[in-house]
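Need residues for this backbone.
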């Protein structure tokens, strides 16, 4: 669905805005609003929705004895491997071989998808916010997603149907409760862990389950709710921009509210309820950028460092121009990597169809499955 690719593009653009910045003059705009986190939460909701859709369809085929658990899990994990692992581990190997000492301190966390543990990200004790290796600090969210991919198939494929909806609701409630508990324990950062991100993943999963079961979403995810939620989010943004907000209280509730809004937006697109917004999200450059968003997210900090090393004058550009230059270069580099490396490997998924599906012809391409 092109609107979802448009969402991915805007999500990764928010991450670039957070990490590249707009310079000192506009620092209030980039520092007071959690652009990067908003983008990550959007990715989480999309992942929860798309992965649950896939797994629930597999569950139905298992119930009709078209396939078994082992074959389904093999297909799911093999396809995830082809989409995520090659470029991810290629990046780890290249950065490791370049000899960055600080990266060598955390490379094994990244290799095992444990980048979201506190000691893999931050220097010092629980009051420290210094990053051990800033260029790979954002890998925490990839670890959250990979941990979700490892566990969620077992939930969807094995849990009794009557338990699915209440358990998913419970996961949504668990997110803010876990963040509150971690903040109360003295930690500065409660967004790194899978249990503190399950509300975003859970909202996407809940939407997929509801639409798979009934053909429609819960009423509280209607497009009218999405519009009202967007208005409230704008009010929050204005308040955060000009008044400042307390980090801990906001980070307890904001991820849940943002995830709810993103799920409602996806539902509105599926029902064709927001034609004007849908037309914008179907804008071809946005859709194209969304398709390569994984590479952009994974590599953007390394590409920026390379640009500064090769073209040091870029660092002295005015903030907005520097942001545009870095974003364009990052997108172009990742487009080349997509066409030359990611896409050929991704096309191998045609040989690993989900059980009950036909193997694709050589002239067909597998549908995109989302990864952050």
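Answer:
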């Amino acid at each position: 669905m092109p609107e979802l690719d448009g969402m991915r593009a805007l999500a990764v653009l928010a991450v670039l805005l957070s990490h590249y910045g707009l310079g000192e003059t506009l620092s209030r705009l980039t520092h007071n609003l959690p652009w990067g986190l908003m983008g990550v939460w959007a990715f989480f909701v999309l992942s929860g929705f798309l992965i649950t859709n896939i797994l629930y369809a597999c569950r139905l085929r298992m119930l009709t004895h078209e396939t078994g658990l082992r074959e389904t899990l093999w297909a799911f994990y093999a396809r995830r491997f082809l989409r995520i692992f090659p470029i991810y581990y290629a990046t780890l190997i290249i950065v490791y071989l370049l000899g960055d000492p600080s990266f060598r301190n955390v490379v094994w966390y990244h290799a095992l998808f444990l980048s979201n543990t506190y000691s893999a990200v931050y220097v010092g004790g629980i009051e420290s916010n210094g990053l051990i290796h800033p260029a790979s600090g954002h890998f925490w969210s990839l670890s959250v997603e990979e941990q979700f991919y490892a566990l969620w198939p077992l939930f969807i494929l094995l849990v009794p149907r009557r338990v699915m909806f209440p358990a998913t609701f419970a996961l949504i409630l668990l997110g803010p409760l876990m963040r509150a508990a971690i903040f109360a324990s003295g930690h500065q950062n409660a967004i790194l862990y899978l249990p503190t991100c399950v509300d975003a993943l859970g909202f996407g999963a809940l939407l997929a389950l509801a639409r798979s079961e009934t053909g429609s979403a819960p009423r509280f995810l209607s497009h009218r709710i999405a519009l009202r939620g967007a208005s409230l989010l704008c009010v929050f943004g204005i308040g955060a921009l000009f008044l400042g907000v307390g980090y801990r209280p906001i980070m307890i509730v904001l991820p849940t509210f943002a995830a709810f809004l993103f799920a409602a937006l996806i539902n509105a697109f599926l029902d064709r309820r927001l034609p004007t917004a849908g037309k914008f999200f179907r804008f071809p450059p946005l859709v194209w950028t969304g398709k390569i968003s994984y590479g952009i997210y994974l590599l953007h900090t390394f590409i920026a460092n390379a640009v500064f090393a090769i073209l040091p004058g870029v660092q002295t550009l005015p903030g907005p121009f520097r942001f545009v230059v870095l974003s364009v270069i990052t997108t172009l580099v990742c487009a080349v990597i997509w066409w030359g490396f990611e896409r050929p490997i991704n096309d191998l998924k045609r040989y690993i169809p989900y059980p009950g599906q036909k193997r694709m012809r050589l002239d067909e391409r597998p549908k995109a499955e989302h990864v952050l």
